[in-house]
Amino acid sequence: MDGPTRKRPRVAEDPDIESPSQLHKDGNFWFPNGSTIIIAAASVSFRVYSGVLSRHSVVFRDMLQFPQPSSAPSAEGCPVLEVSDSPCDLRHLFKVLFPNPTVRPLTSVPATVQFDYISALVRLAHKYQMDDILKDSLSYLTDYYTMDYQGWPKRDQKPLQVESAQAIEAIFISRLTQTDTMLPPALLHCCFLGPKLFRGYTREDGSVAKLSPEDLERCVHGYRLLKQNEGRSIRSLVALVGDGEKVIGCTQPTECRRIMHDFWGEFKPEK
Predict the structure, then answer these.
(1) 42 near 23, Cβ under 8 Å?
(2) Engineering a disulfide at 167: which of 58, 133, 189, 216 sits with its beta carbon 3.0 to 4.6 angstroms away?
(3) How are beta strands 44-48 and 36-39 bridged, if at all?
(4) Which of 90, 95, 123, 131 is CA-nearest to residue 110?
(5) Could you give phi then psi for residue 30, rounded to 5 degrees?
């Protein structure tokens, strides 16, 4: 299968962006001595350093080094790049590129990391070919959505804070980055989402990630198979030790009866 295509960001085509009043300046990433202005969705603008962008991103380096005509858009003496990314996602990326000295970098080991933060980093690092950032951020997801059987029960002890429906976004990222090891555990999470599976996952910026029809079918079919296997396991257990009243193959009937009563209590329908 061919790899995903990385599209080059769209550069602003409107040369009339000279008035500072037209710019909705971001409160955190507008550096007065910055050399490039990036206009995101909703006309939110960031003034940042072109050298840092070029050092980390092949895409930005090509865009900024390409000779611009005199009619190219500019504002406050800086070249302007217009991109389709949400301001929310760009802020997450700029936290890594232009870190606050009092904030831990991504490569340190924080106590907790929010899923939306990592998701934004992976998607933008992939889009703008920021390989180091992509590798570091993707490692949080592969560590959580692991194929390691021993590590599976310990996933909630990981720094990454994950909600159940975010498995939908994990599948999107797995497909985007061709990180196939994430797919089985993420699909397993999705099998138990119920109606949320069809509503998709709403990202921090309001956009919605949804499963493809093929992945939806996998989850619905997978849930049915899991419930069938669960039923077979219960029948096998009952055949071995009894149903809690009639003890069949247990050497400690009183203890087996207590355990089976507790076990069946887990399967009582909720009122």
Answers:
(1) no
(2) 189
(3) antiparallel
(4) 95
(5) -130, 95
Residue 58 in contact with residue 66, Cβ under 8 Å? no
One DSSP character per residue, 128-143 reads TT-HHHHHHHHHHHHH
Give the pLDDT score at 156: 82
CA distances from 262 to 63, 265, 271 (A): 64, 5, 18
For 223-251, the pLDDT digits (tens) are 788 777 666 666 666 665 555 455 555 66
Region at 205 (left for phi over 0; alpha for psi -120 to 50; beta for the rest): alpha
- Beta-carbon contacts of 40 under 8 Å, excluding residues fewer than 6 positions away, are 46, 83, 84, 85, 86, 87, 90
Q: Within its chain, how far is the Cα of 173 from the centroid?
A: 6
Q: Are residues 88 and 120 in contact, defined by beta-carbon separation less than 8 angstroms?
A: yes
Cβ burial of 145 (10 Å; 0-12, 13-18, 19+) is buried
94, 106 Cβ separation under 8 angstroms: no
Q: Which residue, 176, 158, 160, 169, is CA-closest to 193?
A: 169
Tokens matching residue 204: 């921090």
Which structure tokens are listed for 119?
């998701």
122 neighbors 173 (Cβ within 8 angstroms): yes
Tell me the C-alpha distance between 216 and 168, whole Å. Answer: 10
**R_g of the chain computed on alpha carbons:** 25
pLDDT digits (tens, 9 = 90+) for 81-101: 999 999 999 999 999 999 876
What residues in the chain have per-residue pLDDT under 70? 1-22, 101-110, 229-251, 253, 257, 260-261, 263-271
